[in-house]
Design a protein that fits this description.
The chain is mostly helical. It has 18 helices and 3 strands. Strand 2 and strand 3 form a beta hairpin. The N terminus is likely disordered.
Length: 456
Amino acid sequence: MTLIAHGLVSRSDLPIPEWLFGWAAAMVLVVSFVALAVLWPDQRLQEERWRPLPGGVGRFVAGRPAQILCGAIGVFLLGVVVYSGLRGTQSSTANFAPTFIYVIFWLGLVPASVLFGDVFKAFNPWRAIGNAVSWVARQAARSELPAPLAYPERLGNWPAAAGIFAFAALELVASDGDKPENLAIATLVYSAFTFVGMALYGVEPWIRRGEAFSVYFNLFSRLAPFATRDGEAGIRGFLTGLPSFKPVAGTVPLLAVMIGSVTFDGGSEGAPWTSIAPDMASWFGDAGLSPRNALELTFLIGLFGTVALVYGFYMLGIRGARSVGGGFGQEQLARAFVHTLVPIALAYVAAHYITLLLFQGQAIVFLASDPLGHGSDLFGTADHTIDYTVIGANATWYWQVGFVVAGHVTALALAHDRALALYRDAREAVRSQYWMLAVMVGFTSLALWLLSQSNQ
């Protein structure tokens, strides 16, 4: 519902019918599944195989001075976002805050995380402020502060899942979710919530488990070849970062939110949703809600329903895998394979938002010079314009299909390797993956259908 369009660019008639793309993608997954069963008989990805960068580079990159500098930059940008939203023009396209939050931060950090590792952890303004406050408090007290509460295991990633869902609702449900002032207020509210969590459970425990964006970007960063260990950056084996991830309570719902929110964003542009949403909103209007609130409630139900559908589809595949045998519980299998959903979440984000990032992302160049939208030109770039020729319409479609297929093939490989690690019998491991193959084909078909709806 935000005014910064999430829709993809229109494309001319393709040389290959859309249905053929879908069948071809499904065949690629089936062939990949057979190839994995035949050519991948032993687990290969369960050990991370991390090694430090040579020549002390890793200690320099991840050292304390670099962390302090990156944290200061993050705090500065947080301040710019809040100040721009509160004091600047309330036009979503002329104010710094909406483009920075929805495009540079929310979308731009995804490829940055996949390429370079957990960059958000270094720039996280809430982590920087929390650590600074803790340091000042210790110096003032001249002794160790009382130990924070132990982070409850049952809480797990549930705060992160709730935070990502709330952000998606602000972006996709709230009719004024792109208004700069509302974004600034939402940022302040979330900051207060985060600081409370840090005060109760400690800065790092809350960052690892409860802080929504830290958990979100960290999941994507596990696909990266770079990782930090004990204050030193290094390189790890290809695709070995995700299997080492330890899921907790709420991790599966978090991945469902990640995939389901993008699915709803794409599906809300298609005919099925646009045909039923007005009737739902009209029914809520007849029940006494204002037209605006009725539409927002309709979209909120649509968002929640899509997340629940994704969660249910994954759990159906897990239930099928459990029927193969092995003595594993459903929750145990759900957590064991949940990391395989991360490449799918990445594929959905990359495919659906590639044009938004490439086009609207350029706007940050002139918005940085005039963050309040009052006519300033701080860096001499206020007259910069967006180049809409950086990628063509048909090229966009091919890239989107490539993202979807690559993401799901990667998920298949991760699932196959995890099955080999879980099951003693390789044949039983392969049989358990019949269900995961069905899940992957289903997600692929859904993604391609959403793209075809968005591009019409």
